[in-house]
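Hello everyone,

My group is preparing for a crystallization screen and wants a predicted model to guide construct design. The compound we'll soak is flavin-adenine dinucleotide. Before spending weeks at the bench, it would help to have a computed complex in hand. I've included the protein sequence and the ligand's SMILES below. Output in structure-token form would be ideal because that's what our pipeline reads.
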Amino acid sequence: MEYQRVTGEELNILRGIVGPERISTGESVLDLHGKDESFHPRRKPEVVVWPVRAEEISQILKMANEKRIPVTPWGAGTSLEGNPIPVCGGIVLDLQQMNHILELMEEDLQIRVEPGVIYKEMNQFLSRHGLFFPPDPGASASIGGMVANNASGVRTIKYGATKDFVLKMVVVLPSGEIIRVGTNAVKSSSGYDLCRLFAGSEGTLGVVTEVTLRLVGLPAEFMAAIVQFNSVRDATNTVSQIMRSGLSPAALELLDTPIVQLVNRYKNLSLDEKPTLFIEFHGTSTAGLKEELDVIKEICADNRAIRIESGIGREERNRLWEARYDVHEAIKVNHPGHSPLVIDTAVPISKYPDMVERSQKVLEEKGVKGFAFGHAGSGNLHMEILGIPEKEAEWQKVQEAGEEIVSYALECKGTATGEHGIGIGKRKFMAKEHGSSVKVMKQIKELLDPNGIMNPGKIFE
Ligand SMILES: Cc1cc2nc3c(=O)[nH]c(=O)nc-3n(C[C@H](O)[C@H](O)[C@H](O)COP(=O)(O)OP(=O)(O)OC[C@H]3O[C@@H](n4cnc5c(N)ncnc54)[C@H](O)[C@@H]3O)c2cc1C
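Reply:
Good plan to model first. Here are the tokens for the complex, ready for your pipeline.
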């Protein structure tokens, strides 16, 4: 696609739409909007605009579409695959100022929000009403970014991913048309499910300007456990068995030995430096949770667990889970100058033990350093494989390792990305994962965005 650059004429039009105070071409602002949390090369936009209404976004897209100027929506910039990097320049629409909670429908367990709302802040607000929104990507992400990437995280195993919570959306199409999709009913068989089309579309089909989310009640009781093993195979076999046991954990996470070592140092903790599972259950009574804990202990003992520590109640849960958070930060701080290539494969749960073992073997064979952890209960394996992109030979090995690991996940009938999205980094796996259905995806893109202005260079090569 050929794109036009943003000239003084377009800057004047943009100023006319949003006012001079909500547009910037300042170098530091452009720099900030030219990168996310990934290693992917930076690329500055030509202008950043902070709209506050769908109607403003509609006018901006209309103008950009007529003039063939790329537009990239921006949430909080915490993506790990280059998803919001404006690789073709143009306009970045930063949605941070559209950060209002518009309506809480307490009796229906629903909330209507603008896309710039930060999910952690929304959950603080909801906790005062005994409610919460379960998808939890850890980083300080916006609801718009979570919807666009179909984010999930530690609690997906019990509650589902962001897509499963989106009931309705307002979307501005690349033509400038504003459409409403979805329903407040929690089930519907009416027509094509456009909510599920826009959720996970990474800003390539339109701009989400309002979202109605389903909520759940805050759990009355929490139970948590840390379980340690001598081998990662014992830990991952335990994961498969727990998932087949009929129990319904709220979270089931894996940290392999090297990352436990790192987190011990980073947070001054004293965990045994062994493969570790972090488990959480939500329930209505401590008696019920104790029964579940007994079953967990039995399964762990059958798999040669060497240490189990458990506790009931929210405080105990927070204490036991301390080591699970800030893993990305611990790796970053301990490896200055290195960039991580992030693995986000997800496989059917029976294949998880093989997936983890094969991935570690690949690192050994390639002679590269990487850390394995992940949302094990959902079959989701994260690895951060470290290297310096400027050192070509070294980075080549990092990339080869990444490709082998993702290819193995696809052989296991899994996916290249469980939650981070395709962005730039996983485009090369689209054909292998989806075969001829990529053609249908491209036809949908062409139908909604014939001039290819929305977040170009993402999802498809
Ligand atoms: C330490 C760390 C841990 C993480 N852990 C997880 C995890 O456990 N699970 C997980 O899922 N992710 C995780 N992530 C990745 C990231 O936080 C999520 O992908 C998150 O959803 C990105 O949200 P954001 O607001 O930062 O969006 P951005 O990065 O700003 O944008 C994401 C994508 O959405 C598009 N977009 C943004 N807003 C809109 C909108 N209103 N309309 C249309 N398109 C839009 C952008 O163009 C881009 O393609 C982690 C990131 C970090 C740094």
